[in-house]
Amino acid sequence: MRALLGLAAILAVGAVVVHENRNDQVTATQLAAWMHDGRPGLRIIDLRSDSAYTAGHIPGAEHMSLSQLRHAEFRRNETVVLYTTDGKRVSGVGHVYWLHGGAGAWADRHPWRGGC
After folding, report:
1. How far apart, in whole angstroms, are the C-alpha atoms of residue 14 and residue 52?
2. Domain that holds residue 90
3. Is residue 80 helix, strand or coil?
4. Domain-embedded: residue 36
5. Which residues touch 60 (CB under 8 Å, ≥6 apart)?
6. Is the dihedral of CA 26, 99, 66, 89 positive or negative?
């Protein structure tokens, strides 16, 4: 009986991990709500070119190159949201959310904040 309960617990944890990995996108509307609500540990990372970031970015977004991102260490209590120009994902990066639709999805609903 204990073995079955242990196996059930392991499978339940595995199901949560698989579910989280499939649910790794956030919409522009949801991100705006997190920002408005002051979600603790929220970090927004802009992976676009220097010129695109300078021209306008999501308020509070940090700018990183892909190389910097791959070497970045995020704390477990942080909610990290990444975005690119077109919403394409970067391989080899886990435990993060991706902005569905990329920078364009944000710009369609919210004004850019230019400059740094």
Report:
1. 39
2. 24-109
3. strand
4. yes
5. 35, 44
6. positive
Q: How many residues does the chain have?
A: 116
Higher pLDDT, 39 or 108: 39
Number of domains into which the chain is organized: 1
DSSP 61: P
Q: Is 1 within a domain? A: no
pLDDT in tens, 50-93: 999 999 999 999 999 988 998 898 888 899 999 998 777 777 77
* β-pair type (97-99, 25-26): parallel
Residue 56: CATH number of its domain: 3.40.250.10
CB 112 within 8 A of CB 103: no
Q: What is the pLDDT of residues 9-31, one digit of tens each?
A: 444 333 333 333 447 899 999 99
